[in-house]
Write a structure and sequence with these properties.
The chain is mainly α. Helices cover 69% and strands 3% of the residues. The protein contains 9 helices and 2 strands; from the N terminus they run H-H-H-H-H-H-E-E-H-H-H. Helix 2 runs parallel beside helix 4 and helix 6 packs across helix 8. It starts with a helix and ends with a helix.
Amino acid sequence: MSKAVSEKYVKLLSEILESYVLAADEYRTRNRTTGVDDDDFIRIKTRSLAALRRIVGEKSDYFLQFSSIIKKVPFSVHGKYDTFRNMMAVIRALHEDFSGGFLDNYDDVIRGVLFDDFLEQAEYLCNEDYKDAAAVIAGSTLESHLRKLCLKNQIDIHFQKNSRKIPKNTNRLKDDLSSQGIISKTMKKQVTLWLDIRNNAAHGNYNEYTKEQVSVFIQGLRVFISQTLS
């Protein structure tokens, strides 16, 4: 495996672990207890499964261990968080092994080139008829970009409630960007439609959108990101 590909794998696993920490911290800030939101759980679980499948394959110890953890997901908030934490322990183990150079010759490592970005992953999954996973990944990318766009334009991504700072949800970030003239009213409506697809995918309402709509979502989001980065 080339050094460049190995570094991309390490970066991908790092981003998943960072998403886990952020999701847990945001939940703790809002609720003052340990747990995780359903949307975050499904989003990060999907990204983790896709990464494990691509990096080490479904027959690897990492993938099998991860799969065994998620077979029975508790319904309670605290139980779900325990599952979430165990899932990330597998991702952390793979990250540490890759970072330490222990998987350079691992037989189950896929030799293909890692996707350059999450939208490329989403596009691939959509083309392979995994529209639901593609919608979750595209939705995650949209959320991340809205936060970055707010920070870039000095728009606070939190609001104050009593003595606590609460993270704004994506709809509020979108509304703030529109009210400040950062995005047009037309783009605001488009982002709303994209968020609807994301929400339906995250909550298992898979019949509420089509593969074609997810494909248009991915392509439109790529243009939206490119236009608002400058």
